[in-house]
C-alpha cells in the first residue's frame, strides 16, 4: 500500500488574448465579426458612461447609493456575448454592461438604484434575473435554473456572476456543488476585482486562484485576464458550448480591478494606494479594446467619438425617461408596496393597505388614481 | 426662475458634510455635471457635480462650513432644470415633509376624550365597558362590586336600573371562582392523621381539595379543634306561621322576595340574640376575653354545586321582613351563581343553616368559627301532635343549636332555642318583639 | 375512502401531485432510496424515478436555493428539509429570495414552491430536532405557512400548497405523523390556504391552536366539559399566514374569552399575533384577558424535560379555568 499522488482531473490555465498594450494573440483571437466587436464595445462604453453619469446623479441626490461597475465591463460583456437570447443570465450587481446588452433599458437601471423595485423587473422576453444584492446567493438560483433546464431536456445554458468576496460564502460552495453533482449547464463567472469592499483577496482565501476551486467540484476552471474582453469571450464561449452539449458547469475567474469605490458611500483611499489604482487604470479594458478595434479597422477615432456622443445622448434621454417615471404618480404611489407580494393579496394585507390608504386620504396625500376606488370594510368594530 | 440645489444625502444615512472647496463663483456659467463643490462626509471626500446648466446666482456656503443635508447650497439663474417639472401630487408624495397640501381638516383633530372625574381608568372588562356604552352608563359613577373594585356587568345593569334579568346571557358560574392553581399536596392540619394505603384493597382516586373545598375543610377543622361544641334540640309548632306565610307568599314574590322560613328565622334569631348576647360573641383565646358584638350579621348557609358558602345578611335587626326576603333571595341566587361579593362573605356573628328544603328530621350543625353558635333547621312537616289532650295535625319544625360551651351553657342554649321556637310559633309575638 | 395516518396522507398527496402534474419534483436529503427519514416519500422514487424524486447533497441552502431556481424556471419543487431544526441553513434563501422575487419583480418572476419542514417536540428526538420556529416565517412577508393537524387536512393542504402560485412553508407536526388515523377520501381534496376551521363548537370560551398542539387542546376541551360543564369552542388555524382573522374574532365575539395554544416559545409567538388581532377587532367583547399556553422562552429542553415544556391538556385546562374565573 504505497503512498502515491492522486491525479486531479483538471489543470488550471490562465488565458489572455489581448494584452494591456493591445497586442493580440492571433492564434487565440476569437472569430468575431466587426458588428460583434462594435456591439461589444458599444455596451462597454454605455456601461462606463452610464456608471459615471449615475455617480453624478447620486451626488446630486437624484438616485441613491449604488455600487459602481467601472472596471467590470470586459468580464461582463465578454462572457455574456457568448449567450443566446434564449439562454439565462443571472447577474450579481456589477454586470451593468451585460444587463444593458441583454435588453435592460438604461432607465430601468436608474430606477433600480433610484429606489424603485420596478427597476428589478426583467423586461418582457429577457431571460434574466434581476440584480442580486446579497452576495453569492444568486448562484444557487442559477444552479436550480440549470437543473430545471436539464429536467426539461433543453439545450440551454445559464450564466451567472459573483465576486471574489462571494467565493467565501457557503452558497458559492453549495451552488457549484449542486451544479456539478447534477451536471447542470451553468457557467459561473467570478468578477475578481481583488477587493470585497476593503478586504483584499488574500483575506478571502489562501489559494492562488479562485479558478482552482473548480477542481474540488469536479468541473473545469480557468483564470482569465478580466480586462481582456476577447479572452473572456473565448473562455465563456467554450464553457457555454460544453454546457450546452451536456458537459456540465464551468468556473471562470476574470481578474480585474474595481476602478471606483465599492459604492458611492465608500472611500477606497482608506485601503488602497493611488499608485495601485493608477497602475490598474492603465490596464483598462476599454483603452486596449478601442486600440484593438482601431488597429483592426473596425472603429477609428472619429467613429469612436461619434459613438461616444451618441451614447451620451442616449444616456441623457434615459435620465429624462427615468425622472419622468420616478416622478410619476403611478410609481410613487405608496400603496404599490402591497400590490405585488402575493398572487392574491390576502385579506389581512389588504386591510393594511386600506389602513395606509385611509391615512393618506386623511392627510390629503392620496394619489388621485386611488381616490376613486372604494374602501374595503376593515372588519374592525367599534362599540 | 432660480433653481436651488440642496445638499443631498451623499452616503447612506449621512446628515452633514464639510465644504472643502467651492469650485465656482457667482456669475459663472456652469455646465451640467461640472464639479461645483468638494465636500467631506463622515464616509468619504466627494465632488458634487452641478445638477443643471446655467449661471451661478448665489452661493450660500463657504469653505469650512458644515452643512446639513437638505440645506440650500447654491442657486442658479436662467437654468433649465435637469428634471422635468414635477407634478404637484408626485412632489407631495415624494417629499411629504417639505410641501404638504393644506389638509381638508385641522391637522390634529382632537379625539373627544371623556373628562375623567377620578384618578384613572375604571377597572372593568372590555365586555362590561361595551355594556356600559350600550346602556349609556358612565362607568365612573358605578360602584364596583368585583375583585379590587372591578365594575361588573351586573353593577352596570343595576346602575342602569334594568336589573339582572335585563339581558340574556350565558351563565357565568366561574365569575367568583378562585384561579385553579396547579395542585401541590399540602396538609390541612398541623398534625395530619396517618392513613392506611387504601390502594391495597382496591382502586382509589385522589381528588385534590381545591379552593372552596379546601377552605371548608380548613374552617371545619378549625371549628372542631378550637370549639368544644355541644348541641341541643327542640321543635317549633309553626302551623300559624305557615298559614300566614302561604297567605302572603304571592305578595312578597311581587316585591322581589321569597317568603321562606329562613326569613322568619332570621328575625327570631336576632330577637333571641338580643336576649342572650353571649350567643352573639366570640372567645378571644389569646386574651381570655369574650368579644360581645353589638351588631347582628347573620350568616345563611347556601349549598352550591361547588360546596357550602355562607353569605352574611348584615344588620338583620334593622331590616323588615320584606327587605330581608328580597335580600336573602338575591344573595342566595348570587351565591349559587358564584357572583357573590367578597365583603358579603365576611363579618357574620351567628349562622343559620336550613337543610329543610333538602330533607332531614334533625341535625347537629358545626359552629361557624369564630362565632359562638349556629342554628340548624330541618324539614318542617305536618305531624300528629297531642294538643289540649287531643291529637292534631300540626306543622312541626325541628330545630337544633350547636354552641361553644366555653362561652355558653346547655341551659342557656335550651332557653335560647325555646325563645326562637316560641317566636316562630307566635308570629304576633315575633312582630311585637322585633 | 381509506383510513390512514398523517404520514401516509402526506405521502399520498406527494404521490398524487407527482402523478397529475409533471412539473412537480420532490427533492431533499434521503428522499429517494431511503424514502425520507420519516418515510414520507415512501414509494415515490420507485414510481417516478430519480429525475423527479431527487436525493440532493446535504446542504439545506442548496436545496432551497436551487428549488427557487427551478420554480423560477417553471417547475413545482417540493423541497423536504429533514427537520425544521436545520432549515436555518436555508433561511437566507427563504427570506431574501423565495419570499421576495414576486414583489421585487412586480410579479414578473415568481417562486411557486413548497418547503416541507417537520417541526416540533414530543418524539424524544435528538437535540436540534424538536424546534417550532414558525414565527420566523410568519415574520417574513411574502411567504405562506400552513400547519396541518391531521391526515385529511394534511393531504388537502399539501395539494393546496403545491398548487399555490407563491412559496409555501408546509410546517409538518411530526409528533402526530403516526398518532391517529382518519378517513381520507379517494378524490383529491384541497383546503383554501388562509382559512381556519372551527373544529368544536362552544359558547363559553374559544381555544385557538394549530398543528400538534391541537390534540392537546381538544383533550382539554373535553375535560373542561366533563369536569366543569363548560363548552369550549376550538379553532384550528391551519394557516399561520395568511391568518384567518375572521374565524378567530367571530368565535371570540361569541364567547368573550380565549386561550391561544402553541408549542413554540411565547415571546413574539403566533399567539401574540392572535391576541393582537382579537384586541383590534373584538376588544369590547372580552370578559377576560386572552391567555397564552405556549412553550417557554427557552430552547426546547432535551427530551428528559420536553414534556414539561410542551403545552399539555392539563396546562391548557388550567389556563381555561383562570380565564373563565377572571
Q: Which short descriptors sum up this protein?
A:
heterotrimer; A: alpha/beta; 2 domains; 6-stranded parallel beta sheet; two-stranded antiparallel sheet; 43% helix; globular; disordered C terminus; B: alpha+beta; Chloramphenicol Acetyltransferase; 4-stranded antiparallel beta sheet; elongated
Describe the structure.
Chain A is an alpha/beta fold and 383 residues long. Chain A folds into two domains: 13-326, Thiamin diphosphate (ThDP)-binding fold, Pyr/PP domains (Rossmann fold); 336-371, no CATH class. In chain A, 43% of the residues lie in helices and 9% in strands. Chain A contains 14 helices and eight strands. Chain A has helices at 34-59, 73-80, 96-102, 106-113, 138-151, 170-181, 213-216, 229-244, 274-281, 285-296, 301-326, 329-332, 347-362, 368-371, and strands at 13-15, 88-90, 158-163, 186-192, 195-196, 199-200, 221-225, 250-255. In chain A, helix 1 packs antiparallel against helix 10 (285-296). Chain A is globular and about 80 Å long. The model of chain A is unreliable at 375-383 (pLDDT under 50). By secondary structure, chain B is of the alpha+beta class. Chain B has three domains: 3-82, OB fold (Dihydrolipoamide Acetyltransferase, E2P); 126-161, Dihydrolipoamide Transferase (Irregular), CATH 4.10.320.10; 224-433, Chloramphenicol Acetyltransferase (2-Layer Sandwich). Chain B is 26% helix and 24% strand. In chain B, helix 2 (126-135) packs parallel to helix 3 (153-160), helix 6 packs across helix 7 and helix 8 packs across helix 9 (427-433). Chain C contains twelve helices and 14 strands. Chain C has helices at 6-20, 44-48, 60-72, 91-98, 101-104, 134-138, 151-163, 213-228, 245-255, 270-282, 306-309, 313-324; strands at residues 2-4, 24-28, 53-55, 76-80, 114-119, 144-146, 168-173, 182-184, 197-200, 205-209, 232-236, 239-241, 258-265, 291-295. Chain C is globular, with a radius of gyration of 19 Å. In chain C, helix 1 (6-20) runs parallel beside helix 7. The model of chain C has no long low-confidence stretch (mean pLDDT 97). At the A-C interface, helix 5, helix 6 and helix 13 of A face helix 3, helix 4, helix 5, helix 9 and helix 10 of C.
Amino acid at each position: 500500500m504505497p503512498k502515491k499522488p492522486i491525479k486531479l482531473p483538471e489543470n488550471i490555465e490562465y488565458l489572455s488574448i489581448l494584452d494591456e498594450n493591445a497586442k493580440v494573440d492571433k492564434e487565440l483571437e476569437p472569430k468575431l465579426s466587426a458588428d460583434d466587436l462594435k456591439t461589444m464595445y458599444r455596451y462597454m462604453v454605455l456601461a462606463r458612461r452610464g456608471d459615471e453619469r449615475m455617480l453624478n446623479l447620486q451626488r446630486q441626490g437624484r438616485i441613491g447609493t449604488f455600487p459602481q461597475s467601472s472596471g467590470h465591463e470586459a468580464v461582463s460583456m465578454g462572457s455574456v456575448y457568448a449567450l443566446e437570447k434564449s439562454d439565462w443570465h443571472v447577474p450579481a450587481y456589477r454586470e451593468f454592461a451585460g444587463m444593458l446588452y441583454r435588453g435592460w433599458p438604461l432607465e430601468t437601471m436608474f430606477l433600480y438604484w433610484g429606489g424603485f423595485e420596478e427597476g428589478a423587473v426583467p423586461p418582457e422576453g429577457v431571460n434574466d434575473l434581476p440584480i442580486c444584492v446579497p452576495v453569492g446567493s444568486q448562484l444557487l438560483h442559477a444552479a436550480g435554473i440549470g437543473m430545471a433546464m436539464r429536467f426539461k431536456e433543453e439545450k440551454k445554458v445559464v450564466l451567472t456572476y459573483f465576486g471574489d468576496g462571494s467565493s467565501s460564502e457557503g452558497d458559492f460552495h453549495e451552488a457549484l456543488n449542486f451544479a456539478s453533482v447534477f451536471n447542470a449547464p451553468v457557467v459561473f463567472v467570478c468578477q475578481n476585482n481583488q477587493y470585497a469592499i476593503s478586504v483584499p483577496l488574500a483575506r478571502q482565501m489562501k489559494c492562488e486562484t479562485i479558478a482552482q476551486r473548480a477542481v474540488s467540484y469536479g468541473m473545469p476552471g480557468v483564470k482569465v485576464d478580466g480586462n481582456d474582453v476577447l479572452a473572456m469571450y473565448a473562455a465563456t464561449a467554450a464553457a457555454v458550448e460544453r454546457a450546452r452539449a451536456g458537459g456540465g458547469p464551468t468556473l471562470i475567474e476574470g481578474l480585474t480591478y474595481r476602478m471606483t469605490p465599492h459604492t458611492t458611500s465608500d472611500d477606497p483611499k482608506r485601503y488602497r494606494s493611488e499608485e495601485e489604482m493608477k497602475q490598474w487604470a492603465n490596464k483598462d479594458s476599454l483603452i486596449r479594446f478601442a486600440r484593438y478595434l482601431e488597429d483592426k479597422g473596425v472603429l477609428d477615432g472619429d467613429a469612436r467619438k461619434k459613438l461616444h456622443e451618441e451614447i451620451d445622448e442616449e444616456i441623457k434621454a434615459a435620465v429624462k425617461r427615468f425622472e419622468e417615471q420616478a416622478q410619476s404618480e403611478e410609481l410613487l404611489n405608496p400603496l404599490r408596496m402591497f400590490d405585488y407580494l402575493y398572487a392574491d393579496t390576502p385579506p389581512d394585507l389588504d386591510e393594511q393597505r386600506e389602513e395606509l390608504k385611509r391615512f393618506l386620504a386623511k392627510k390629503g396625500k392620496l394619489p388621485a388614481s386611488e381616490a376613486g376606488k372604494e374602501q374595503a370594510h376593515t372588519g374592525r368594530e367599534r362599540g | 426662475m432660480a433653481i436651488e440645489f440642496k445638499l443631498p444625502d451623499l452616503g447612506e444615512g449621512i446628515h452633514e458634510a464639510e465644504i472643502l472647496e467651492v469650485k465656482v463663483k457667482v456669475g459663472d456659467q456652469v455646465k451640467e455635471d461640472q464639479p461645483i463643490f468638494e465636500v467631506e462626509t463622515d464616509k468619504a471626500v466627494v465632488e458634487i457635480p452641478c445638477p443643471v446648466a446655467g449661471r451661478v446666482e448665489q452661493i450660500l456656503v463657504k469653505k469650512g462650513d458644515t452643512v446639513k443635508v437638505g440645506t440650500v447650497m447654491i442657486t442658479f439663474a436662467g437654468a433649465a432644470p435637469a428634471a422635468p417639472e414635477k407634478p404637484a401630487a408626485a412632489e407631495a408624495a415624494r417629499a411629504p415633509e417639505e410641501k404638504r397640501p393644506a389638509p381638508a381638516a385641522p391637522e390634529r383633530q382632537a379625539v373627544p376624550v371623556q373628562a375623567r372625574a377620578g384618578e384613572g381608568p375604571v377597572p372593568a372588562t372590555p365586555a362590561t365597558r361595551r355594556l356600559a356604552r350600550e346602556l349609556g352608563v358612565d362607568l365612573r359613577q358605578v360602584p364596583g362590586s368585583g375583585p379590587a373594585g372591578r365594575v361588573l356587568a351586573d353593577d352596570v345593569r343595576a346602575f342602569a336600573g334594568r336589573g339582572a334579568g335585563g339581558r340574556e346571557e350565558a351563565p357565568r358560574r366561574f365569575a367568583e371562582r378562585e384561579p385553579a392553581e396547579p395542585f401541590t399536596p399540602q396538609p390541612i392540619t398541623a398534625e395530619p392523621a396517618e392513613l392506611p394505603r387504601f390502594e391495597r384493597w382496591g382502586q382509589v382516586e385522589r381528588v385534590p381539595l381545591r379552593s372552596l373545598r379546601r377552605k371548608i375543610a380548613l374552617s371545619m377543622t378549625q371549628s372542631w379543634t378550637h370549639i368544644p361544641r355541644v348541641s341541643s334540640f327542640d321543635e317549633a309548632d309553626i302551623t300559624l306561621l305557615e298559614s300566614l306565610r302561604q297567605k302572603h307568599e304571592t305578595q312578597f314574590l311581587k316585591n322581589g322576595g321569597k317568603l321562606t322560613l329562613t326569613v322568619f328565622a332570621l328575625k327570631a334569631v336576632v330577637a333571641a340574640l338580643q336576649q342572650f348576647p353571649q350567643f352573639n360573641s366570640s372567645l378571644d383565646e389569646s386574651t381570655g376575653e369574650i368579644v360581645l358584638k353589638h351588631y347582628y350579621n347573620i350568616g345563611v348557609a347556601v349549598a352550591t354545586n361547588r360546596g357550602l358558602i355562607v353569605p352574611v345578611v348584615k344588620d338583620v335587626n334593622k331590616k323588615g321582613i320584606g327587605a330581608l326576603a328580597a335580600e336573602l333571595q338575591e344573595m342566595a341566587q348570587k351565591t349559587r351563581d358564584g357572583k357573590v361579593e367578597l365583603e358579603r362573605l365576611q363579618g357574620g356573628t351567628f349562622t343559620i343553616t336550613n337543610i329543610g328544603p333538602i330533607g332531614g328530621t334533625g341535625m347537629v350543625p358545626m359552629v361557624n368559627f369564630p362565632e359562638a353558635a349556629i342554628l340548624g333547621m330541618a324539614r318542617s312537616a305536618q305531624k300528629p301532635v297531642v294538643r289540649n289532650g287531643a291529637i292534631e295535625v300540626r306543622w312541626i319544625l325541628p330545630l337544633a343549636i350547636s354552641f361553644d360551651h366555653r362561652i355558653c351553657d346547655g341551659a342557656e342554649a335550651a332557653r335560647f332555642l325555646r325563645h326562637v321556637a316560641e317566636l316562630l310559633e307566635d308570629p304576633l309575638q315575633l312582630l311585637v318583639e322585633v | 375512502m381509506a383510513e390512514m395516518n398523517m404520514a401516509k396522507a402526506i405521502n399520498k398527496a406527494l404521490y398524487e401531485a407527482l402523478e397529475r402534474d409533471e412539473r412537480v419534483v420532490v427533492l431533499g436529503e434521503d428522499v429517494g432510496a431511503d424514502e425520507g427519514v420519516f418515510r414520507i416519500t415512501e414509494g415515490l422514487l420507485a414510481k417516478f424515478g430519480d429525475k423527479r424524486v431527487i436525493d440532493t447533497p446535504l446542504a439545506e441552502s442548496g436545496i432551497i436555493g436551487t428549488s427557487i431556481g427551478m420554480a423560477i424556471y417553471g417547475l413545482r419543487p417540493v423541497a423536504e428539509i429533514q427537520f425544521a431544526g436545520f432549515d436555518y441553513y436555508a433561511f437566507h434563501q427563504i427570506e431574501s429570495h423565495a419570499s421576495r422575487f414576486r414583489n421585487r419583480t412586480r410579479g414578473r418572476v415568481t417562486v411557486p414552491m413548497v418547503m416541507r419542514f417537520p417541526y416540533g417536540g414530543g418524539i424524544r428526538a435528538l437535540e436540534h430536532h424538536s424546534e417550532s420556529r414558525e414565527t420566523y416565517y410568519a415574520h417574513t412577508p411574502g411567504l405562506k405557512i400552513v400547519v396541518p393537524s391531521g391526515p385529511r387536512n394534511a393531504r388537502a393542504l399539501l395539494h393546496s400548497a403545491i398548487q399555490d402560485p407563491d412559496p409555501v412553508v408546509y410546517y409538518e407536526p411530526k409528533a402526530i405523523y403516526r398518532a391517529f388515523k382518519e378517513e381520507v377520501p379517494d378524490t383529491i381534496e384541497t383546503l383554501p390556504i388562509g382559512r381556519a376551521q372551527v373544529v368544536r363548537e362552544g359558547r363559553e370560551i374559544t381555544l385557538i391552536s394549530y398543528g400538534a398542539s391541537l390534540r392537546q387542546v381538544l383533550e382539554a376541551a373535553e375535560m373542561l366539559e366533563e369536569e366543569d360543564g363548560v363548552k369550549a369552542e376550538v379553532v384550528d388555524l391551519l394557516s399561520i399566514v395568511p391568518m384567518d382573522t375572521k374565524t378567530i374574532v367571530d368565535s371570540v365575539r361569541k364567547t368573550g374569552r380565549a386561550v391561544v395554544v402553541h408549542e413554540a416559545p411565547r415571546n413574539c409567538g403566533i399567539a401574540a399575533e392572535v391576541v393582537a388581532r382579537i384586541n383590534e377587532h373584538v376588544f369590547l367583547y372580552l370578559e377576560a384577558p386572552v391567555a397564552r399556553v405556549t412553550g417557554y422562552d427557552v430552547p426546547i429542553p432535551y427530551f428528559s424535560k420536553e414534556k414539561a415544556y410542551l403545552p399539555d391538556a392539563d396546562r391548557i385546562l388550567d389556563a381555561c379555568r383562570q380565564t373563565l374565573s377572571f
